[in-house]
Amino acid sequence: MTLSKGRRNCSFDSNGQGSCTDGGCGALVCDEHNGIGQTPATLAEWTLGTNGQPDFYDVSIVDGFNIPMRISSNEGCHVADCPVDLNINCPGPLKGPFDSTGTAVGCKSACSAGLDKNQADSSNCCTGSHGTPGTCPASGVQYYNYFKSNCPNSYVYAYDEDSGSALWTCDSSKQTDYTLTFCP
């Protein structure tokens, strides 16, 4: 899988170490083996197909949102996107982090905000007794409708494939070129 994410207001030293207001991972080049780094972060995700398997791609806000994002292609495959700035109207319990002026630069997911106090057994995180699609429906995820209604072509929670508008495919035999646009 290939991941890409946006980050803002970063400062790095000559060794590539540093920080960002949002979306950072502690370094100029993020360690692909140790996760995405700081949440909330909008992610672009691809798994490129081989041997007749399709390419899979999505814009994920499962770990929260920090910047609008769009994935398009030269082959006319479906656009995956979250084109609006969710930080502006982010619900109070999810809002943050904030920049030096006090403006929200992120909107946490209900899971990353810890709204149900037990991330190990959480309907917001789809963990523990809620760890299957049958025990973690979208209706049990707080603020799902806020995210999905604003970003209907994005991946909003762990089992969002059932929405039919979260995970997209494209014929890998076309050798598609994808374009990732930040703040479309």
Automatic annotation (TrEMBL):
Q: Where is the signal peptide?
A: none
Q: Provide the alphabetized UniProt keywords.
A: Disulfide bond
Which cysteine pairs are covalently linked by disulfides here? 10-20, 25-30, 77-170, 82-151, 90-107, 111-125, 126-136
Which InterPro entries would you find in this protein's record? Osmotin/thaumatin-like_sf (IPR037176), Thaumatin (IPR001938)
Pfam families to which the protein is assigned, alphabetical: Thaumatin
Q: In its keyword annotation, does this UniProt entry include Disulfide bond?
A: yes
| Name of the protein | Osmotin, thaumatin-like protein
